[in-house]
Each structure stands twice: as C-alpha cells, then as structure tokens.
Amino acid sequence: MKKVVIVLLVLLSALHQDFWWWDSIDPLVMGFLPVGLAYHAGISLAAAFVWYLATVYCWPRELEVSDAEAATPRQQRGEL
Amino acid sequence: MTAMWIIIGYLIVLLALGFASNRVFRGTSLDFFLASRGVGPFMLLMSLFGTTMTAFAMVGSSGEASQRGIGVYGLMASSSGIIHALCFFLVGMKLWSLGKRYGYLTQIEFFRDRFESEGLGLLLFPVLVLMLVPYLISGVLGLGACISGVTQGAFPDTFPTTNGAVPAWISEGIIVGVVLVYVFIGGVRGTMWVNLFQNILFMTLGIVTMFVIADRLGGWSGATQMVRENRPSLLKRTFDPVDQPKIEAAHHRYEVRLEKWKENKAGPKPKAPVKPGIGQLEFLTYLLIPFSVATFPHLFQYYLTAKSAKSFKLSVVGHPICILLTWLPCVVLGVWATSAVLDGKPVLPPDADPNKVLAMAVKNLTGPILGGFMAASVLATNSLDAQFLVLGNMFTNDIVAHYLGKDRFTDRQLLTLGRLFVVGIVIVTYVISLSEPRGVFKLGTWCFAGFASLAPLTLAALYWKRATKLGAFASVLAAGGVWFWMFRDSNYGEAESYLPWGMHPVAIVVASSTLALILVSLVTRPPSAATVSKFIGPRPSLGVHSVPLRTLAGGMSGAR
C-alpha cells in the first residue's frame, strides 16, 4: 500500500500540470466556476485525500519520541 | 470610521489573547520559544497554516488573479497544498523527532550537529537572517499601508498632509507595538493563539464576502458571465485575442503615466500592465517555490513545538483544505472584480493597483462593516509574530548562548535575553521601515526562491547518508551565488517578468544548489558513522539516548 500512496502522490503532481484544460473556460462547474479553476480545487481535495492515505499507510512510527527518550531540560541547556 | 473601529477592536482582541496565553506560561525559555513541546494537532495545523499564509494569500491572490486570471490558483494554491503537506510529512516530523530527542531549539543547532561543522552555522546564520529581514519589513510596510488606507479621511484636521489618514509611522508603530506585546508576554503560545483567531477570521470572511458579492452582482453565474463578456482571458490560462485591444489601451495609458512620472519622479513608479495567461514551464517550475516551507526558520520553530509526531497528522491532511477555503474565494473575487459593474459604473477603475483590488471590491460592493472586517483580516494574514520570535530565538541560542556557553546563564536569564532580543529586533525593523524601503517588496518575493534553494540541503541532511559538510557549504554558496547573479540580472527585481528560458528563476537556483551538494558530497569525506546513525538511522538505542549531549558531541569531535 505504501508504494500505491507514493504512486498516487507522483500522479497527483503530474495531474497538477493539467495542460488539457489550459485553454478552456467551459464547462462552468456549478454554473460559475471555470473548469480550469474547478479542476484545481479538485486537486486540493485530492491532495488532502492522498495525504490522508499517507498518514494511514506510510506513517513513520519510528519517529515518535517518548518523554523518557527526550533530551532533558538540563541536557538542552548544556548542563550535562 | 466604522472600519477603523473594527480594526481597533481587532487589535484589542490580539492583546487580550497575548495576556490570556501568559496565564498558562510556565516561565521557562523552552516554554517561551517552543511552548514546552506540547502543542496538539489542531493548534499545530492552525499555526503552520497561519504562518504559511502571509498577506499575499488575501491581498496578493486577488490582485494577481485580477491580472493573470484563474491560473493563479493552480500556480500558487493547489501546488502549495501538495508540497507544503509533503514538507510537513518528510521534513517537519523528522525535525520534530530529532529536536525532541536531542534538545534542538533552532535550525542552526541542527545543521551544526548534522554536518559536524561550526563554520556551517556561521555561514547559515547571516544567510537566514538576511533573507528573513526583507520579508519582515515588507510585512510591516504592507500592514501600515493597510491601516493608512482604511483611515483615509478619518482625521482631516489632525493629519491634513495625508488626506486625513493615520500616517505610516504611526500605523506601523501601532502594528509592531501590538505584535511586540503579545510576543513578549506570551511567547510562541501567544503567537499560536493569535494565529488561531486570525485563521478563523480570514477563512470565514473570504467565504462570506464571496456570497455577499455574488448576490450584489446578480448571482454566481451572472458574476462569471460579466467576466466572460469583458475579460475572457481571466477565466483560463491562455491569452484570448478578444482581450488584445484592452491590453493595448492599458499599455498606452501606462506609457503616458510613465512619461509623466519621469518628469518629476513623484510617487511610486507606474507598473506595466500584465498580459493574462501563464506559461506551462513557468507553471511547472513554480512547484518548487512552496519547498521554501522546508527551510523557513519560523516554521522550523513551529515544527519543534509539536506534542508528538501524531500531532502532524491533521496538518498534513488539513492544510490543502485550509488553502482551498482561503484561496478559492480570493481568486474568484479578484477575477469577478475586473468586470463587475454596479449601477452602470465599473467597480474597479482602469489600471487599478492589484494590491487594492480586494479592498476596492469589498468597499464598493458591500458595506463598511464587511469592509472593516476585510481590512482586519488583511492585518491578520501576517507572520510577523513568528518571525520576530524566531529571530529572538536565533540570536539568543545560536549566538549568545552558543558562543558564551549555555552554562553561564540560568534559564531565567536566557528567557530575559530572548525577550530583549525580540524587543531589539522589533525596534530595528520599525526604524528601517520608517525609511520606506519600497524595494524590499521585490526582494521579499525573491527571498522565497532563496529559502526554496536551501530545501535540497534540508532534505539531504535528513535522508542522504552521504551528504557531507563540504557538500553543504557548496550547496549554500552555489544557491547564494546563482541567486544573486539572477537577482542582478533581473535589474534587482525591477524586471516586470523575469522568466529565464520560460522558467521561474527558482528552478535554476534549486538545480544549482542540488548539483553542488551532490557533486561535492560525492568527492569529499563522508560524515562519521555516529552522525549518520544519529540523524538518518538506524535509530540509536536507548543506551545512546541516555548519553549526555556534550559527551556525544565530544565523541563526534573525536571521530572527526
């Protein structure tokens, strides 16, 4: 699944380039949004979805640091 | 006057939030700079989002859309939704993890340790400060101008020379004074509480304003239809020949204004009209600009405030949605305003200043109350507080504490030093802004490219075992050298559209810094095994964590 998420992110970046709607106004989505703008609003929503998948399937659990593992305040001040 | 009272109310709320945050302040330098590393998911999202959205999001996006069209959203907003979240995921979380484990307070502490180099810290400190200061000054100037604009005609007897508006030296003084108070007493927690309030204000207001204006223009479809008939180029990303006569007329008016300006050079130099449309290569290379989020010092500081790695989840997912909610109304309003006609009169005068498009549209199409809130929300879209704070943090920890020795100071003294540095930076910024260095606006936009050019170094520091100290030096120097060469080539930011080979200059600067980093790293001695293990993995065991930092640092010196 991790690979799928990476592929989706690459795909999202490619879809962002969107050369197919470059010269189009129509169709007007919901009667007022030019297709080029509506498409990119969709890209924002798709980004949120793909990043949600990343937090579910690619979450780097090893980065979690417990308070016990953290530098102590004295260490942070260079007192040790 | 209504708008002025709303702004006064807004500033009072900011002060109240600063005082409220002080009630939970723990009185330590760690709490002042990093909120004791205890910030939860929602506050982290609001802080990261609020800090990445400068005044450019509200004012600049509408103004830019009124000139270049709806493509501005894809150019700057949807790209940021993808890349900012990527930076939070790959950079923010890992920096937080290393910061908590090894006690980092600043970006430079991290780079010094990662590249086993005091010199790199000395090189990076002025680079980061010099790139941040223009950004800071342009924020103060912009906000001062906003207050002066809103109070136009309010005090004709007191300020006759400024048409009754509060003069810039007072409005800028008020802004930096309010920010100073809540940063001084609340520290980073104060800035985060203020950020939360500001985000709610400008997100709500953008959406409400779009509904009100659509209604005033005869409905959503009607507003777009006006643009289709008048300026069709603004509804797509290519130039429509229908707009050619309008562009030619605008150029003619510009040349007349320019000739007049050359006679006495009074006021700002007129700006050439911008031809709508966006090139495909410019659109593609602009994707690199949001990588600046990986290296902004004030964002680095916010990354370190998180309570846990899980706190980043909401920021990663929610950031693209927050951008959508803020940018979409602003871009739509900017495009609608260009063609809006009310009672037979155009809402915007010909050749309207892009930075005033949103204010004029709101003022002419809504009432004074919404206009006042809009002005307050423009004031809200700044990251001055975070920038003041991080500079105070850097001077305290990277210079004073690092070179004089942290053990010379008690924590109370470090906290006092941090506060004094914040006061000093605020005063210096205010004094510089009094000289009205308008050129910093142009420099400010170039600073984004500068910060983005350091992103490869940050990524390599976190993920590339072979990245070396000399590679890091080469990357910073190549980025600085190429950046300055291009800045000079663009006539110090004066060139209206500077796109070498059709690309945004950031592409060339980033390519240079990346190439220098890779090539020099590959031919120089790799970092010590201890450093690679500490920063990239495999993760050190608990036994290593318990080794005091100074012993660990001594060990690394020995390894060198």
Gist of the model:
Chain A is 54% helix and 0% strand. By secondary structure, chain A is mainly alpha-helical. In chain A, 24% of the residues are buried.
What are the defining features of this structure?
heterodimer; A: 80 residues; mainly alpha; B: 560 residues; Sodium/glucose cotransporter; 2 strands; 1% strand; globular; disordered C terminus
Strand-pairing-aware structural class of chain A: mainly alpha
What's the end-to-end separation of chain B, in Å?
A: 66 Å
Shape of chain B: globular
The percentage of residues in β strands of chain A lies in under 5%
Would you identify the regions of chain B where 5 or more consecutive residues have pLDDT less than 50?
Answer: 540-560
- Strand count, sense and closure of the main sheet of chain B? 2 strands, antiparallel
**Percent in helix of chain B:** over 70%
Can you walk through the features of this model?
The complex is a heterodimer of chains A (80) and B (560). With 80 residues, chain A is mostly helical. Chain A has one domain (2-63). Chain A is 54% helix and 0% strand. Chain A contains three helices and no strands. Chain A has helices at 2-17, 35-57, 73-76. The termini of chain A are far apart. The model of chain A has no long low-confidence stretch (mean pLDDT 87). Chain B is globular. With 560 residues, chain B is mostly helical. In chain B, helix 7 (118-150) packs across helix 8 (168-216) and helix 7 packs antiparallel against helix 18 (439-453). Chain B has 24 helices and two strands. In chain B, a hairpin with a 2-residue loop joins strand 1 and strand 2 (345-346). Chain B has a domain at 2-234 and 290-439: Up-down Bundle (Sodium/glucose cotransporter). Chain B has a two-stranded antiparallel ribbon with strand order 1-2. Chain B starts with a helix and ends with a helix. The relative contact order of chain B is 0.16. At the A-B interface, helix 1, helix 2 and helix 3 of A face helix 5, helix 9, helix 11, helix 13 and helix 24 of B.
